[in-house]
């Protein structure tokens, strides 16, 4: 018997006669959009997912449909990270926000692509990403400056040195804007963490892609795990848990649904959460960035420091 | 071949059963996968709270700190009615008197560590005096540590005699024997130390001092529970179990209860036979109970620290 020469071409028909799959077609590896809790990317504990669609009806991805237990875990992570983050030097927080901007710049193309998938035009998407980067730089600058602006030395009628300074309020629950899924998200998160708070954010329900990708940016930019936690899911399901939680110190809500706003106000009274509604803000304009956003999640601490009453004792230097 | 049956009061501890490490760890992990319904969970949480030995064993302990802890023991969270007290307060011998006075009439026990806790590196004479002092001060329970060094050196008789001597010094007080499993190294040794302690007269066996990592784990506790079970089958005598250190979450505590029930049964499901040595567990349990009552997730800010 002669040598059997096996040619490549002879393999194109397999034994059972089926044609070989064309080798030029590669099976695309699709990204799994997971949530971001405590510096990790778990799937939702509930195992549920939903499929947001764009205007043309194309399914964008399978996205985690977070449950109240994911929220609970995220609050634990945020609370755990609060001590370390709030006690960092303000300048260091500034460096980290700047680093976030750098990392976002590096992945610009991916964000633009995702925004386009979610119905933005190329030009508008590019503008949104650029603005988001600029906004991080803007708040990076404010990290160690807003305290000077909003602090005061107060005149008092006793021998005390009396001064007031802003301090971070704690864990902030954020229901991000539905529309501007990247710029809105960044514009709400940045002032919260610039001021030393930690947060749990519910991303846009209909346009969640950028939020998850933004979590990847955060994860690679020296931001300690747990400072920002990002969930995807339905505000209708989760909002009441956001405001019911006794370990949440402030709530930011960015839609103008008046029933929900009323519910947030009522439930927030249980532990006197700070409540802010950002429902009329155009994030593209200048009103979308201001140190007053930082102050929305700060509390003012006033200190009475006893001093020797030099003048009263008739002394002097 | 006929072998004369010798009457032995004390078995040869070097023949204690060997432990299948993989098997024990696998079995222990199964207990964490039970589904527990809400009502059962609430009852379980209350039982956990009622089994806690609220503990402070710090060099910096003061009378004031102990009094505060005793108040916490009696009034874990008055905002919600019907919350049980803890089982006992666990302190150093010098603090027993303070605790005893503070807890007067509450039914909460005072447990005292003794025998040169936590290292156990002292002469037997000192250990016995330490124990007698604690009991004289009013301790209802004594938590002793075994001599791990002697145990590792194979001097099982020394360890046995020491426990027996301390048991005698305890008088009416119940004796808990701390094996310090984190220093024993293997499950085989944990099993052997458990057998020694129980035969020598322990009323409870306890995993750890809380000063060494790892402290209580589920597999180690399982090995000890099985030792208790075997001892019970052999002698008919019930021995208590106290995992201590490293249990700070309610969920984990409930896993322990599942394990307890499935290994030893209902008879052990009370604070007479099972305790958690813990300090931060109490607040987590309270937070879960309040969550169950109100439906709101709780914040540590609203619960007293001690």
Report on this structure.
The complex is a heterodimer of chains A (317) and B (306). By secondary structure, chain A is α/β, with parallel strands linked by helices. In chain A, 38% of the residues lie in helices and 15% in strands. Chain A has a 5-stranded parallel beta sheet, sandwiched between helices. A 3-stranded antiparallel beta sheet of chain A has the order 3-4-10. Chain A has a two-stranded antiparallel ribbon with strand order 1-2. In chain A, helix 3 (108-117) packs across helix 4 (122-142), helix 3 (108-117) packs antiparallel against helix 7 and helix 8 runs parallel beside helix 9. Chain A is elongated and about 115 Å long. The mean pLDDT of chain A is 91. Chain B is an alpha/beta fold. Chain B has a single domain, classed as Aldolase class I (TIM Barrel), CATH 3.20.20. Chain B has 11 helices and 8 strands. Chain B has helices spanning 21-30, 38-50, 63-74, 96-102, 124-137, 148-152, 156-170, 187-200, 218-235, 250-264, 281-294, and strands at 52-55, 88-91, 109-113, 141-145, 174-178, 204-206, 240-242, 276-278. In chain B, helix 8 (187-200) links the parallel strand 5 (174-178) and strand 6 (204-206). In chain B, helix 5 runs parallel beside helix 7. Chain A binds chain B through residues 72, 75, 79, 241, 244-247, 270-271, and chain B through 295-302.
């Amino acid at each position: 018997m002669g040598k059997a020469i096996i040619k490549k071409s002879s393999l194109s028909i397999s034994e059972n006669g089926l044609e070989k799959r064309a080798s030029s077609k590669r099976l695309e590896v699709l990204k799994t959009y997971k949530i971001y809790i405590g510096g990790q990317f778990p799937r939702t504990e509930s195992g549920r997912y939903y499929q947001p669609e764009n205007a043309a009806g194309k399914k964008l991805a399978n996205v985690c449909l977070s449950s109240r237990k994911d929220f609970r875990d995220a609050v634990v992570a945020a609370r755990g990270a609060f001590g370390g983050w709030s006690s960092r030097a303000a300048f260091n927080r500034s460096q980290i926000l700047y680093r976030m901007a750098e990392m976002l710049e590096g992945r610009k193309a991916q964000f633009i692509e995702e925004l386009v998938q979610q119905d933005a035009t190329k030009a508008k998407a590019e503008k949104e990403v650029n603005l988001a980067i600029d906004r991080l730089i803007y708040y990076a600058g404010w990290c160690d400056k807003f305290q000077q602006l909003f602090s005061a030395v107060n005149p008092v009628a006793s021998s005390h040195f009396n001064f007031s300074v802003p301090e971070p309020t704690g864990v902030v629950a954020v229901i991000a804007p539905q529309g501007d899924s990247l710029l809105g998200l960044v514009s709400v998160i940045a002032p919260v963490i610039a001021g030393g708070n930690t947060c749990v954010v519910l991303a846009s329900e209909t346009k969640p892609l950028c939020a998850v990708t933004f979590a990847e940016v955060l994860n690679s930019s020296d931001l300690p795990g747990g400072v920002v936690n990002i969930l995807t899911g339905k505000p209708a399901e989760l909002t009441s848990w956001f405001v019911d939680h006794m370990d949440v110190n402030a709530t930011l809500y960015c839609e103008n649904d008046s029933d929900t706003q009323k519910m947030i106000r009522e439930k927030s009274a249980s532990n006197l959460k700070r409540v802010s509604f950002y429902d009329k803000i155009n994030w593209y304009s200048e009103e979308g960035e201001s140190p007053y956003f930082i102050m929305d999640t700060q509390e003012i601490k006033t200190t009475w420091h006893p001093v020797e009453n030099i003048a009263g004792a008739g002394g002097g230097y | 071949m006929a072998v004369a049956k010798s009457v032995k009061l004390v078995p040869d501890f070097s023949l204690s059963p060997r432990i299948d490490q993989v098997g024990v760890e696998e079995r222990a992990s199964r207990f964490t996968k039970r589904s527990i319904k809400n009502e059962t969970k609430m009852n379980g949480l209350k039982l956990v709270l009622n089994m806690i030995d609220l503990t402070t064993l710090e060099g910096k302990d003061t009378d004031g700190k102990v009094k505060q802890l005793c108040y916490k023991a009696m009034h874990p969270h008055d905002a919600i009615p019907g919350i049980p007290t803890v089982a006992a307060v666990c302190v150093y011998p010098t603090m027993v008197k303070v605790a005893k006075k503070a807890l007067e009439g509450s039914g909460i026990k005072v447990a005292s560590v003794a025998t040169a806790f936590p290292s156990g590196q002292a002469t037997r004479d000192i250990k016995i005096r330490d124990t007698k002092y604690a009991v004289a001060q009013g301790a209802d329970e004594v938590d002793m540590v075994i001599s791990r060094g002697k145990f590792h050196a194979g001097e099982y008789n020394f360890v046995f005699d020491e426990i027996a001597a301390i048991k005698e010094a305890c008088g009416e007080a119940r004796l808990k024997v701390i094996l310090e499993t984190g220093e024993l190294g293997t499950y085989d040794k944990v099993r052997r130390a458990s057998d020694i302690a129980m035969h020598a007269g322990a009323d409870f066996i306890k995993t750890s001092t809380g000063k060494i990592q790892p402290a209580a784990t589920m597999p180690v506790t399982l090995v000890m529970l099985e030792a208790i079970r075997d001892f019970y089958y052999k002698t008919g005598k019930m021995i208590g179990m106290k995992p201590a250190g490293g249990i700070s979450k309610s969920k984990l505590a409930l896993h322990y209860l599942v394990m307890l029930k499935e290994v030893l049964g209902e008879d052990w499901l009370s604070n007479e036979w099972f305790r958690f040595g813990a300090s931060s567990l109490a607040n987590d349990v309270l937070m879960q109970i309040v969550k169950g009552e109100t439906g709101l997730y709780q914040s540590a800010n609203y619960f007293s620290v001690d």
